[in-house]
Write a structure and sequence with these properties.
mainly alpha
């Protein structure tokens, strides 16, 4: 029940900012303009990328604290102080790197309009200054989550992530520029860091005493984090290099037509992320003791993600024109509709691939997904280079879709070689369910093509009928008796 509760908390922590973002992004685009919003998107990418370059220490400290939580307070204290100190050093180095190379990036790498050069320089400098605070916050948040205190994590995370959407939207009524938006976001991050530190002070009694920094812990953290760091370097490239291709080979304004559907659709991954944020400490805690528990957790997570993300992606794929047209206007919809649909398929595949990725890291084998990412990177960049010249942003989205399928195949092949018993996740029932979802997708596309687009009531009614039938099939086909009893209790309680 604790895992279910924490998964719900993590889901809420990501869903609430997403809902806020749906309403505020159109105001941010209008307030900052297409080029200004594109600049903000690129700046967020740079910060997100540099924040991953902590040599895997945030993930490593979360794993080893999860393993030591019922064993040794002294070990937890050592992990806490060593990882915090090293992250601080990495953050300062990263900030210096940003400050030194910002002029080069703005003038040479990015296709920044001349009237935005000064504003771009300020934006990147503010983000660079925030890097030490971001790294420390990520590290402390991971350690709080390692002891399953996701209630405290989300007390901070929900307001911070919500402000990430609200502050850019304030550019419309307040007439503030991108750099001012970034400065306000940085201030919220600094406040968040101090709150995380306060919670750690309450949760881990050992850190209240004079710090005892034992650097003998560092090799263990860095050894595990070494492969994580490879993933941390390559994974953001796999996720964000497409935007730099668009900015360089097309224009900064077109980045907006790709970034908004991509980012909003990727929010569907809040479900697998919520599951894995909760279950990763359990994978770690059980990695040396009970592999049966880990297999059970993996199988259940796979089933729930298959059902929920599958249904969500079917609806988004089918109603992409309606959603984009209502949300951002017909002109925006025409430029982004193919991107939206291709990314919706990729998000579903990527959501399932997130499970073996976290499983390998939890059981202490981060080298496996890291090696796969090393293989994927040159293939993906080659596809981007070819397809962006032939199909522009639609080609970029197609290249990303191919990359997600490749990642999915490699991770599951590696998983089944390492843990053959997990092949049971592809039982015939789940295959039948996946086929059924594909059939319903075709049905909805056919129905939408023959129903007048103005008949929104008919479309909604048809979708409701499809979901009802799919829910009934899911109940009898995929849920076991124990899950049915639990769900009945939940609904009866409500």
């Amino acid at each position: 029940m604790l895992l279910a509760k924490n998964t719900g908390l993590n889901l809420a922590g990501m869903l609430i900012p997403l809902i806020v973002g749906v309403f505020t992004i159109p105001y941010a685009v209008r307030g900052l303009g297409e080029e200004g919003f594109g600049l903000l998107s690129i700046a967020w990418i740079v910060l997100g990328y540099l924040a991953m370059l902590d040599f895997g220490l945030s993930r490593a400290s979360a794993k080893f604290i999860a393993e030591a939580r019922n064993r040794s307070n002294v070990e937890i204290q050592q992990i806490f102080w060593v990882s915090t100190l090293i992250n601080l050093v990495f953050g300062i180095i990263g900030a210096i790197f940003v400050l030194v190379f910002t002029p080069y990036c703005i003038n040479s790498l990015l296709n920044i309009p001349e009237h935005l050069l000064v504003e771009s320089n300020r934006t990147f400098i503010f983000f660079g200054i925030s890097l030490p605070f971001v790294l420390l916050s990520t590290n402390l948040r991971g350690m709080i989550g390692a002891v399953q205190r996701f209630d405290l994590v989300n007390i901070i995370l929900i307001p911070l992530n919500t402000l990430n959407f609200i502050i850019p939207a304030l550019s419309l009524p307040l007439k503030i520029k991108v750099s001012t938006v970034v400065l306000l976001i940085v201030i919220t991050r600094v406040i968040g860091l101090f709150i995380y530190a306060y919670f750690c002070y309450k949760i881990f009694p050992g850190i209240r005493h004079r710090p005892k920094i034992d650097f003998h812990v560092a090799p263990k953290l860095l050894r595990f984090g070494g492969w994580i760091s490879i993933t941390s370097i390559i994974s953001p490239l796999l996720v964000y290099v497409d935007r730099f291709f668009i900015s360089h080979f097309l224009t900064l304004g077109i980045v907006t037509y790709y970034t908004i559907p991509y980012d909003m659709l990727n929010r569907i991954r809040i479900l697998p992320i919520a599951f894995m944020t909760t279950i990763f400490p359990e994978f770690s805690a059980n990695s040396n003791n009970d592999s049966h528990i880990n297999r059970k957790l993996f199988e259940q997570s796979f089933k729930y993600i298959l059902i929920l993300t599958g249904i969500a992606c079917i609806l988004l794929f089918s109603y992409a024109p309606n959603l984009l047209g209502i949300w951002l206007g017909e002109a925006f919809m025409e430029k982004s509709i193919i991107v939206f649909r291709l990314v919706s398929i990729g998000v579903f595949v990527n959501s399932l691939a997130y499970l073996p990725f976290n499983y390998f890291q939890g059981i202490g084998r981060p080298d496996i997904p890291a090696k796969f990412h090393l293989l994927e990177l040159p293939i993906y960049i080659s596809m981007l280079f070819i397809l962006i010249h032939r199909f522009q942003i639609n080609g970029v989205a197609f290249a990303w879709l191919i990359r997600t399928f490749l990642d999915f195949i490699l991770l599951f092949i590696g998983l089944f070689k390492y843990e053959p018993k997990l092949k049971s996740i592809f039982k015939i029932k789940k295959i039948n369910f996946a086929v059924l979802m594909l059939v319903f997708l075709v049905l909805m596309q056919w129905m939408n093509s023959i129903i007048n687009s103005r008949s929104i009531i008919i479309q909604i009614s048809f979708s409701f009928c499809v979901l009802l039938i799919l829910s009934i099939i899911t109940w009898f086909l995929l849920f076991d008796q124990q899950e049915k009893i639990l769900l009945r209790k939940i609904f009866n309680r409500n």
